[in-house]
Design a protein that fits this description.
This protein is an alpha/beta fold and 337 residues long. Helix content is 37%, strand content 17%. It contains twelve helices and nine strands. It has a nine-stranded mixed β-sheet, sandwiched between helices. Helix 4 links the parallel strand 7 and strand 8. Helix 10 packs across helix 11. It is globular, with a radius of gyration of 21 Å. It starts with 8 loop residues before the first strand and ends in a 22-residue tail after the last helix.
Length: 337
């Protein structure tokens, strides 16, 4: 486990997103381990500070509360099944012990992004609450995220839902655009990676292109898909770039990612039959379009390699932190239902 070294700089990377952008799924996919609770509804009610290294012996979670309950420590075997309850809204929890959580410190032996004693810094990933909820928790979430961006974060990974981009392009004083703009004005070296999640949703939009829609054969269909490859994906990228430039980010770094499929691949032995069928269909699409180069193009589309390598360069980490996913050429075995 990472040691408390006063000579080391701690570099905090906040992951921020509007509701249902897939933030926790993205973090799980980035680290290669499905530890954080990730549901279709807004889940994270408190900030989770993630300390990642390559030593599994002291994995644990430390939970702090806002009321008079004492700080507790979850043992390694309890973290996967318990952390989701401490991270949820109080109204979603039936037991008093899960309520009034202030923050969670998660120490974990993740598979991909890892700190090392040889590095000059220890990076910390912060999973922040979504700031745009409309329920009674809205102010708490917004205030918590605002404080983390303005007073703690050295860097932000700003996540967008591909299907909701147009609704999240404008800036105001208290939304995420406004907060990162304010932080940039305070600190010109403040870095932001803009990340479009759920990019695989663009497949459906691309299929509406006339040439693709009117294909007269299967061969022509896949040929046209390749011809218009990344068509709507690039439109989404340009929308984010234009907004970022408008809000004084001169050379914005924009990435696309499919967190769901990254996580499926990295945890495929634990998937059920439905998710395995999704993977099979995903692979088949790339095989039909790119033939022998399908695996290279597929991993490029998933987007994790570019983000991981860009983070490594930004953090000046010496070791190669990307571990490639090995594709099983045979059909995946069916998981338990």
């Amino acid at each position: 486990m990472m040691k408390n070294n006063i000579d080391k700089q701690q570099y905090k990377i906040a992951v921020v997103a509007n509701m249902s952008a897939g933030k926790s799924t993205f973090i799980n996919a980035l680290f290669g381990d499905s530890i954080l609770p990730a549901y279709s509804l807004a889940t994270t009610d408190c900030p989770i500070y993630i300390y990642s290294d390559d030593d599994p012996s002291n994995d644990k979670a430390i939970v702090e509360f806002t009321d008079d309950k004492p700080t507790i420590e979850l043992a390694k075997e309890d973290v996967p099944k318990e952390i989701k309850f401490y991270a949820q809204k109080d109204e979603d929890n039936l037991e008093e012990k899960y309520k009034n959580v202030k923050k969670i410190d998660l120490y974990w032996d993740f598979k991909v992004l890892q700190n090392s004693e040889k590095y000059d810094i220890d990076f910390v990933i912060i999973d922040t609450p979504g700031p745009n909820n409309t329920d009674k928790y809205a102010f708490k979430h917004s205030d918590t995220t605002k404080n983390i961006i303005l007073n703690e974060a050295d860097m932000v990974l700003y996540l967008f839902d591909y299907g909701q981009i147009d609704a999240n392009l404008e800036s105001n004083e208290n939304n995420l655009w406004g907060l990162i703009k304010q932080k940039k004005e305070q600190n010109p070296n403040f870095e932001v990676f803009f990340i479009i999640n759920k990019i695989d949703m663009a497949f459906s939009d691309n299929e509406k292109i006339e040439d693709i829609k009117n294909s007269s054969s299967e061969e022509e269909y896949y040929s046209n898909i390749k011809k218009y490859w990344n068509y709507n994906e690039n439109i989404a990228i340009e929308k984010i770039k234009k907004s970022a430039i408008k809000y004084d980010f001169k050379s914005p770094k924009v990435f696309t990612v499919s967190s769901k499929f990254i996580e499926y691949y990295r945890n495929r032995t634990n998937l059920n039959f439905y998710h395995l069928d999704e993977i099979d269909a995903f692979i088949k699409l790339f095989k039909n379009i790119f033939k022998n180069n399908f695996d290279i193009e597929m991993h490029k589309y998933l987007g994790h390699m570019q983000i991981e390598e860009s983070l490594k360069i930004h953090l000046k980490l010496e070791d190669k932190i990307y571990k490639p996913i090995k594709i099983n050429k045979k059909r995946f075995k069916k998981g338990k239902r």
